[in-house]
Design goal:
Blueprint: E1 5-8, E2 11-14, E3 27-29, E4 35-36, E5 54-57, E6 60-64, H1 70-73, E7 77-83, H2 85-88, E8 93-99, E9 105-118, E10 131-141, E11 145-147, H3 165-177, H4 185-188, H5 199-217, E12 229-233, H6 241-245, H7 271-278, H8 310-313, E13 315-319, H9 322-329, H10 335-358, E14 363-367, H11 376-381, H12 394-417, E15 422-426, H13 428-437, E16 469-472, E17 475-478, H14 498-508, E18 514-515
Parallel strand pairs: 12-13, 13-14, 14-15
Antiparallel strand pairs: 1-2, 3-4, 3-11, 5-6, 6-10, 7-8, 8-9, 9-10, 15-18, 16-17
Helix pairs in contact: 3-5, 9-10, 10-12, 13-14
């Protein structure tokens, strides 16, 4: 781990600002990793009061007399001006500096009246003869940054300047304890037993510890205002595409929420419906079903085509994988053969995402695929597959996990190629698997058994599907819903119930299963 700071002559300096290093300083936001250009080739780091004068104290990096246009002409900071009479005087003005990518608080810019100091205009130590007495000062918090070139990123210490060598060593020791992501509480307790540490260092340690966890749990971010959602997915998020081309699913589909079939493969709302609701948007209709499409959700009569600005400002959601893998399994391909096809599937996905980006998309919300080996249509058709503790077919889940690994790698590469867009990778697999592994904990029962189906251990048969009518011992039988879909995980052997979809949404909306860990309403 690179050290965040070192102490010389009673002052704390960040390692990248040493007088021996005249390179361009490169930092990233400590929350989202977005690169922030805080450096300047003209900065003479060894001279306080130079053109880009610098002082560091109490864990604050202060840049003096920086050209204010840098904060408006380049994509570094998003500034929100406001007045704070109590803190900065009756008419004192200050401006928050926020990471443009995630909105995390980076520091503060404010007007400052200080004694005059010489302004150095070149690389020499001689003064130009000009003096600066009143200027805008920028305080950038060390703990809001991370070195862009570091292999491991730590949460820099909120430190105090001191000429005490022992204190400096203790501060470094405490700094090494504070890693990101923050350790759990049980892991932290042993760290508190430092009998040799001074009262000052213990105080700093506890304060930094609190701030580290507070920043990880509730960083300051801005809400997005998505005017629309464009969804790309399989039948788990289909809101009418299949129905427009072929035929709509029959009753009892849709019975829980819509009380009638609603072109969705569930008893009620899908995950994409909860996402739309969470963003204050109406439910999605199929783009193929032009009569039902309404992009102008704020008006009485909708347009059949979205406004042009919607394309760049909208949220683009992706929920793929399950159908791609299942197609291979049901085409008599072996698990190994399906596994070998995964890179090609992911490459095609990457190509499609790049094409969508070229059309103006900038906010991408990408789900990985779920544990396909836990679904009745896999379990009933491949009964000899090895089972795990939850009763799921292990080889098929392993293919899904491999798909997710390759998908995440692809998302990482796409991020590098398009740094001005937001690509949020969401671990749907872990959330869905918890429903099968610990159903009672989440208020569910019989997770491997279809709610709407017929036949066998898993209440599923490819020939006797949900909503159909069959003959049983000479009697016509309608395949309908179970008594209480609200406590069931799987609806028809392939898709999830509304209750399960609601549970999944509740888990992912806060960003705990996202990479980067950004809530849904801030994924822009």
């Amino acid at each position: 781990m690179q050290k965040s700071a070192f102490i010389t002559d009673g002052e704390i300096h960040h390692h990248s600002f040493s007088s021996a290093s005249q390179r361009h300083v490169s930092y990233s936001c400590g929350s989202c990793g977005y690169e922030l250009n805080l450096g300047s080739s003209n900065r003479k780091t060894s001279t306080i009061g130079s053109k880009y004068g610098k002082s560091i104290k109490r864990g604050i990096i202060s840049f003096f007399n920086i050209d204010e246009s840098r904060f408006t002409q380049v994509d570094e900071f998003h500034c929100i001006p406001y007045l704070s009479k109590l803190s900065w005087g009756l008419f004192g003005r200050k401006t928050k500096l926020l990471c443009r990518k995630c909105g995390n608080y980076i520091g503060t810019a404010y007007e400052s009246k200080t004694p005059p100091y010489p302004l150095v205009l070149d690389e020499s130590d001689s003064s130009s003869g000009n003096e600066v007495s009143g200027y805008r000062k920028y305080d950038v918090r060390i703990r809001a940054l991370q070195p862009s070139t570091a292999e491991e990123f730590g949460i820099p210490l909120v430190a105090m300047a001191s000429s005490d060598t022992k204190l400096a060593e203790q501060l470094k020791e405490v700094e090494n304890m504070l890693m990101f992501p923050p350790p759990s509480v049980p892991e932290l307790l042993p760290l508190l037993d430092f009998t040799e540490l001074s009262i000052q260092v213990k105080y700093v340690f506890l304060l930094a510890l609190f701030l580290t966890h507070a920043a990880a749990v509730s960083p300051l971010k801005r809400n997005c205002d998505f005017p629309a959602i464009f969804n790309f997915g399989d039948s788990n998020s289909d809101t009418g595409g299949f129905s427009a081309v072929f035929y709509p699913p029959p009753p009892p589909y849709g019975e829980t929420f819509f009380h009638m079939p609603a072109k969705r493969f569930s008893d009620g709302r899908l995950l994409i419906d909860f996402i739309a609701k969470g963003l204050g948007l109406p439910f999605l209709d199929s783009y193929l079903d032009s009569l039902g499409t309404n992009f102008n959700h704020g008006g009485i009569i909708g347009s059949l085509m979205p406004n042009k600005e919607y394309f760049q400002e909208a949220l683009y959601t992706f929920d793929i994988g399950q159908n791609d893998l299942a197609e291979g399994f049901f085409s008599n391909m072996t698990v190994e053969e399906v596994n070998a096809s995964v890179p090609d599937i992911v490459n095609k996905f990457s190509t499609n995402v790049k094409e969508i980006y070229s059309l103006g998309a900038r906010s991408f919300w990408i789900h990985n695929t779920g544990p396909i080996g836990c679904l009745p249509y896999i379990l009933s058709d491949f009964p000899s597959a090895r089972k795990d503790g939850a009763g799921c077919a292990m080889p098929y889940n392993e293919v899904a996990q491999y798909f997710n690994v390759k998908l995440k790698e692809a998302v990482v590469e796409i991020r590098k190629e398009f740094p001005l867009a937001t690509f949020t990778y969401v671990d749907i697999y872990s959330v869905k698997y918890s429903l099968f592994a610990e159903p009672q904990k989440h208020g569910f029962e019989l997770p491997l058994v279809s709610c709407c189906g017929y036949g066998g251990e898993y209440n599923y048969n490819n020939n006797d599907i949900c909503g159909s009518t069959i003959m049983v011992n000479g009697t016509e039988v309608f395949i309908g819903s179970c008594k209480n879909p609200s406590v069931r995980v799987v609806w028809d052997g392939i898709h999830y119930t509304e209750a399960a979809n609601k549970f999944i949404f509740d888990q992912i909306t806060n960003g705990l299963f996202s990479d980067p860990p950004v809530p849904l309403n801030m994924a822009c």
